[in-house]
Design brief:
By secondary structure, the protein is mostly helical. It has 31 helices and 8 strands. It is globular.
Amino acid sequence: MKQERRFDIVLVGIAILAAFLNIFNIWNSGNANAYYTAAVTSMLQSFHNFFYASFDPAGFITVDKPPVVFWVQTAFAAVFGVHGWSVILPQALAGVGSVLLMYTLVKPTFGRTAARLSSLVMAFMPVAVAVSRTNNIDSLLVFTLLLGAWMLFRGVRSGKLGWVLGAFAMIGLGFNMKMMQAYMVVPAFFLLYVLAFKAQWKKKLIGLIAATVLMLGVSVSWAVVVDSIPAEDRPYIGSSSTNSVLELAFGYNGVSRLTGDNTVGGQSGTQQSAAAAASQQSNSSAANTNTQQTQNGTTNTQQTQNSTTNMQQDGGTPPSGGPQGGMGRNNGTSGLFGTGQAGPLRLFQKELSGQASWLLPFVAFASVALLAGIRLRQKFTDKQIETLFWLAWLLPIAAFFSIAGFFHHYYLIMLAPAIAGLSGAGWVELWSKYRDKEGWKAWLLPSSIAVTTAFQLYILQAYSSTIGIGWLIAVGIAGMGTALVLFFARSNKTLSSRMALAGMLALLIGPLYWSATPLIYGENTMLPQAGPSGGTMMGGNRPMDGNMPQDGQPSFGAASGNDSAASQDANKPSTNAMPQNGGQPPAGTDIGTAQDGARFRMGGGMGSELNEALLNYVTKNNTGETFLFGTTDANSASSYIIETGKAVMAMGGFSGEDPALTVEKLQKMVENNEIKFFYISDNGLGRGSSDVLTWIKEHSTEIPATEWQGSSSSSSQTSGMGMGGSGTLYQINK
């Protein structure tokens, strides 16, 4: 018995399955999210860059998030080298760790079966798998918060304040990963402490104040240190408008997420998006010119490329979650960034429902069962307290995403732990009441399975033209069949017990399939999203069979992608164009060389194109300058930093809008022999500081395109940088 308590073979199997979903094929991720991978490349070069999370090796500007996750990624890169998979690996492992932590959190109070189911639900949470397969921050953030929850549970059970303080410190650590997003769980932590910590009220209040102060202190520790350092002695804080970490935390990464007023450099989100769209349109012109010559999918490919170029990190336009929603456009049926219309049912809309909402109806029934015996004048049981904890985690976050104006699909990973905990614990409680025939409560189990199955069919039917009807039939028969048996065969205890478990497992068919979609259809490593449409943009891994079928979307039971013309085209080298209908070739590999010598790598999202002719020219003509060249935004610079380990200036930060460079600062840098070349896209004057860009044009010599693009290209056809658009290389006159 002792050995059985310590070792659960079922949990081992669940962990292995989670590891497969999170890790398999990440070695084909190219540069992953090249924006963050470039920062890791830079952070490896000096402690100065490491401490600030500098985007470039020269320490000109930081990335748009605090450094803790990038410290972890840098440690992995120091051991394994800088690769897409090496910077993804810590997030993938964190996803597996979250599965194990769910088991540890649920088991003491609700039992082993509940713990197993909770960990299984966590392993099959589609959005959690999608984001764990990237070098975005959220998977490590959730793991950190769950580790804090484990410390809090241990603290309230043992009555030791030290564990409670450690738990709130973990929230502060999470703040140094993704700022205000970590505070989403604070209501749950407060509630559990107040309800469960055994101490006199005076001592309990002092402990709560101390924990809160510690949380706030850890949260702002890095920000206060950085903001206290003179601006000239540190990088500019990327995506801030005042060069302040605190402003970044409570503005761009804080209140703006709720209001949708994404202000960077003095421009509102609408203005910024318009400017970015105008400037980066040229970065897709050459690719679009070529693509327009393709048949059967011309429009889809052009829209895909244009939408991709207009994205901003944590503020861009992801692919719509629904099959007809467009690439994140507000087309009248989908809200900003393709996240559905704000309102109480937003998480149930097709744009978001496939990410984390599959079991929400079941959770509602489960919560009723778990709290059915609660009495305000009676002492709460441990089960009731922990149920309230998970609800206090779930409901405020669900409310935020229901009304927020500025977030991406993968943020919904914050819902995953609460859904997993309530699902596992809830099933055990529902089965108990059904088995014991507790009146109306006994009917909650079959009702929950039936209603949740119906909701899952609603999610699947929106994709029936893509995945086929096989999945709808399988889910419908399994879910509704078990529910009917439970409704009419209650007297047969053996059959009903098997059907109860089968019903729960039937509800996991859809989430499991959706979790596997990043492996089946490819994925976007920059703006991850589960579902058949989640990997149809640039930045995706190759699918499991190595081929991308027509439209990038195979159907259930359909023939192999090798049988389609589109699939064959997806594996052919391309010249300046995306594959037909937006399909994606194998990630992390060169898919062709444009006339100008630009090498396109898939799998890295924006910033994963590298013009070797340009690189050779600026390297050959570098006379000791710190920067190889400067450009408007980080996306145009990322792949050059990763490839060479040398400094490329992104003078406007990620989006090109950061006021990081002034004319006076630029003049000083030129005098100090820090920079000589600037690449400006044709619409570059629409971005960042127009004064700086105008000064560059007025005080520079335009380098003929034949010198840095190759003799076979012309300026009207060449891509130079970005997504294949044309531009000009300038050399500053001294």
